[in-house]
Design a protein that fits this description.
A hairpin with a 6-residue loop joins strand 1 and strand 2. This protein starts with 19 loop residues before the first helix and ends with a helix. The protein has two domains: 20-271, Fido-like domain (Fic-like fold); 290-358, Arc Repressor Mutant, subunit A (Orthogonal Bundle), CATH 1.10.10. It has 359 residues and is mainly α. The chain is 63% helix and 5% strand. The longest helix is centred in the C-terminal third of the chain and has 39 residues, at 251-289. It has 15 helices and five strands.
Length: 359
């Protein structure tokens, strides 16, 4: 049987965590995170950010696990869930669904991020009814040469024990006076080291990050997603995870995660500004060229669904199918949308918005 290669520490872990350099990075991350929280509130409909950015996070998080899809495949899988254009796109859609499930449960459970919620997200992500690992044999291997890099706890009882301790650490704020961003980085490392599921731990761990920030009130809605940063700095991410396990030194890992928060917040701020500018442009163009069909609800629909269809407009605006089709065709004729056909279905793409995400 495989032998566990790292003693999962108690929480909070021993040793000095809030060093001068770590606190400096934390202050920088808090500054940009607070700015992001305020800027997000200026978008007229928060579902625009939740729906569009969660799908981008799903794509980036899946890429960390070498599940790669295109923007078009991803949006089409969301548009036509019964006929996804690729298996990878379906995986991305499941990640998005798992994230949304976690956010809803956070609200239902009055801010508690529980193991039951974590298991529910895993079950959606992996289309299974199982939960935490119960049998030994799990090991993390080097993708290049197949060598075992890390062996997590093997016994099911140990997995449950460590996850119970982690659940308490997440939800009982009085357990430590740590800065919440530093605590988020510790939670992520602990979760990845416990590795409680047979598969999907990286993606679930990255969902926990943003849900924890929301739980702490650092964000109103889950819109800070670290996966793109991690994808860009993937080798460093895995090396630092292992560095903590081998040395017990947390500072490089904490600084990495805090830098990820700051840089991601900066990028998300820029994206929100671009979305707002594009919404303003569309608002003016529809009011000027198509005043009879303009409404804020229609504008919101075009930005909540970069790929939209007649049914979306019909349901969200409360109009007939004929009216919804007429609205979309007029927008396409005016150059605001691009009309496509997939079998018997038409769909309409907000191409400039999709371009923002692609860039």
């Amino acid at each position: 049987m495989l032998k566990q290669t790292y003693d999962i520490p108690p929480l909070p872990p021993p040793g000095e965590l809030e060093t001068v350099s770590v606190l400096r990075e934390a202050a920088r991350a808090h500054r940009f995170l607070a700015e992001l929280k305020g800027r997000a509130a200026t978008i007229p409909n928060q579902s625009i950010l939740i729906d569009t950015l969660s799908l981008q996070e799903a794509k980036a998080s899946s890429e960390v696990e070498n599940i790669v899809t295109t923007q078009d495949e991803m949006f089409q899988a969301s548009l036509f869930p019964d006929n996804p254009s690729s298996p990878a796109a379906k995986e991305v859609a499941l990640y998005r669904d798992a994230l949304q499930c976690g956010f809803e449960k956070l609200d239902e459970q009055q801010g508690l991020l529980t193991n039951n919620s974590i298991i529910a997200m895993f079950q959606i992500l992996k289309r299974t009814k199982s939960g935490f690992r119960t049998t030994p044999g799990t090991a993390l291997k080097n993708e290049g040469n197949g060598d075992i890099v890390y062996v997590p706890p093997q016994h099911g009882d140990d997995v449950v024990r460590h996850m119970t301790a982690l659940e308490r650490f997440i939800n009982e704020d009085a357990m430590s006076a740590l800065d919440p961003l530093i605590k988020m980085a510790i939670i992520h490392h602990q979760f990845e080291s416990i590795h409680p599921f047979p598969d999907g731990n990286g993606r679930i761990g990255r969902i926990i990050n943003v849900l924890y920030l929301t739980r702490q009130g650092l964000l109103e809605i889950p819109i800070l997603y670290l996966s793109r940063y991690i994808t860009t700095h993937k080798d460093e991410y895995y090396a630092l995870l292992q560095f903590v396990r081998e040395t017990g030194q947390w500072q490089p890992w904490l600084e990495y995660m805090l830098c990820a928060v700051a840089d991601t917040a900066i990028g998300t701020l820029a994206l929100i500004d671009e979305i707002k500018a594009l919404m303003h442009d569309y608002k003016n163009r529809i009011r000027s060229d198509l005043p009879r069909i303009y409404s804020q609800d229609l504008l919101n629909n075009l930005f909540r669904h970069p790929y939209t269809r007649i049914e979306y407009v019909q349901n969200e605006l409360g109009v007939t199918r004929q009216t919804a089709a007429r609205y979309l065709d007029q927008l396409a004729a005016n150059g605001l949308l691009v009309k496509y056909q997939a079998g018997r279905n038409n769909y309409y793409v907000n191409a400039p918005l999709v371009a923002l995400f692609a860039n």
